[in-house]
Amino acid sequence: MKLKSHILIFLLFFGVHGKIQDDNHIQQNVISDAGSPNGTSDSKEGKNNSEVLEATLEDRKVDESLCFHADVDQFCFEKEPTKGCECEQFRDAIICCNVTDILKSISCLSMNASTYKNIHIINATQAEINVTQLNSLKQVDSLVITDGNVSRIVGQFARFSSIKCLNFSNNNVTEINERAFMNLNQLKLVDLSANNLTKLPSLQNTTVDILGNSKISCINISAALEKDVKFLNKEKSLCESEVVYWFNDTASITISDVEKRKKLEYDCPEKCRCKPGHMQYTNIDENKKDHLIFISDVDCSNSGLTKLPTKLPENTYYLNITNNSISSLSALVTNDYYLNIKSLFADDNLITTIVDLEGSKFLENFTVLSLRNNKIKDIPYYILSNLEKNLNGKILYLGGNRLTCECHIVKNINHWRLINDCDKILCNNMQAKILELKETELCKSGIDDWANYIEYLIVIEVLLLIALFTKVSYDYYVFKKTGFLPFPASYIILYNQK
Questions:
Q1: Which of 89, 229, 340, 431 is least surrounded, with the fewest CB atoms within 10 Å of its CB?
Q2: What is the DSSP letter of 348?
Q3: Distance between CA 277 and CA 275 in Å, rounded?
Q4: Starting at the edge strand that comes first in sequence, how are the strands of the sheet with 238-244 ordered?
Q5: Separation CA 240–CA 25 (nearest Å)
């Protein structure tokens, strides 16, 4: 395995990050420019390890930092063991290279290993590390094991350990014991970047870097945020979340997106319950490019509300206001927080009309509208007609409402059948369901049918206008030809002359 030089200066610590490419995304490199690609550095030729380390420590003020870090290339490239030992001592630090057995390598030094403050182990080929065996290192503040081939971390650190920084970056770690770090009460920083983890160990009130571990569940990340865990590189670090877009799938989102999802707790209306729904692709820009967003589900049922909440969380697609005392749905048209609503459950309220929704974006785009057991007495014909034109999978429930049943309902019964529970819609002016109505009973005659009566009046008016136009045209023709005025006009003139 080729070794690379990694230097990341962030706040008060030095970490190590490697170049990684996961299945979904290519993460940015955080690699030091010091040293050539093969791990050599021409500028440092001629200096021994002690001189290089002295300069490194002085330049970076390692003693004042949270994490100790030795330059990988400078100390481990083609390094020959000193007196059969992979480790070297400098001040209160141990630097070990190409280690096959960590404990054995550390113990080969003459000085008592329990007195060291900082340990950096580079290129460890030990596949499994049992941290319980490292409990003898009681005074260690910074334990760094990087750029190796470690795949499993088992065991558990002892209680009251002084470790403040753990760095297992740029290895091949796929599994860490859930309780491995639980006893590290002074732990401030854990660098797990550039590995292949699918789950985080239990952590609390610390800072973590997981850049390059894109297979960790977002549920796991959310649980860590609940325990006051802070994440570095939030805009670049990914986790896996559920996606619903024609089929169930997973997709990678950033930790920043997970934090936005947790913002639901603060944006949730009073007396309501909010939770993150699924992830979904949607078009939110002019370029018609699909973007991944999370969907908010808001449940305000049984909350004693008399009107719709004035504010909803971002991307609220689902709203349940069942069993309240709400009488108006006008907020769906006038309030921008309701623009994305697709599913509305408003059963058992005091809603009297849906005329407010005429021409609204909601009426065109909704997938589910449930208004069962309200006070609705009339549904305008044009709303039903619009429903027929834009049905496309829409679900509408109106059961339990008592409508004023008149002739027009029977004549448009096919439109009413589009309502999913049309068999449960009742009449308030008779004991019947709308599907039980008969045209012969409700539309008795043409005189009683106002729609037909108006049609008759229109026909008569048109005929009268045609007759009047014909008479005027005829009289004008006679006058031009004979000079005689028509009877009405000549009579009026004679009457005035008298």
A1: 431
A2: S
A3: 6
A4: 248-254, 238-244, 273-283, 290-299, 316-320, 343-345, 368-370, 395-397
A5: 12
What residue has token string 């490019």?
A: 289
Count other Cβ atoms within 10 Å, centred on residue 151.
16
Give yes or no for a contact between 398 and 419, defined as CB atoms under 8 angstroms apart: yes
At 150 the pLDDT is 96
Secondary structure of residue 208 in the 3-state scheme: strand
Over residues 320-340, mean pLDDT: 94
Is pLDDT above 70 for 8? no
Check: CB of residue 235 under 8 Å from CB of residue 272: no
Q: What's the whole-number mean pLDDT along residues 270-279? A: 84
Mean pLDDT of 395-402: 93
Considering only CA atoms, which of 133, 134, 140 is closest in space to residue 116? 140
The 3-class SS string of 283-346 reads ECCCCCCEEEEEEEEEECCCCCCCCCCCCCCCCEEEEECCCCCCCCCCHHHHCHHHCCCCEEEC
Q: What is the pTM of this model?
A: 0.57
The Cβ of residue 419 has, within 10 Å, a number of other Cβ atoms equal to: 21
> How distant, in Å, are the alpha carbons of 136, 184, 225 from that of 157?
10, 7, 23
pLDDT of residue 31: 27
- Return the structure tokens found at 179: 């309780």
| CA atoms of 300 and 323, how far apart (whole Å) | 9
**Amino acid identity, position 245:** Y
Query: pLDDT tens for residues 63-73?
Result: 346 788 888 77
**4 by DSSP, 3-state: which?**
coil
- The set of residues, in sequence order, having a beta carbon less than 8 Å from that of 419 and lying 6+ positions away, is 396, 397, 398, 425
User: Is pLDDT at 56 greater than 50 in this prediction?
Assistant: no
Parallel, antiparallel, or unpaired: how do β-strands 118-122 and 316-320 relate?
unpaired
Average pLDDT value over all residues in the chain: 79
Q: Residues 12-39, buried b or exposed e (16+ Cβ, 10 A)?
A: ebbbbbbebeeeeeebeebbbebbeeeb
Q: Which residue has the tokens 């590290």?
A: 184
402 falls in which pLDDT band (50, 70, 90)? very high
| Residue-level pLDDT at 187 | 95
Burial class (CB in 10 A: 0-12, 13-18, 19+), 84: exposed
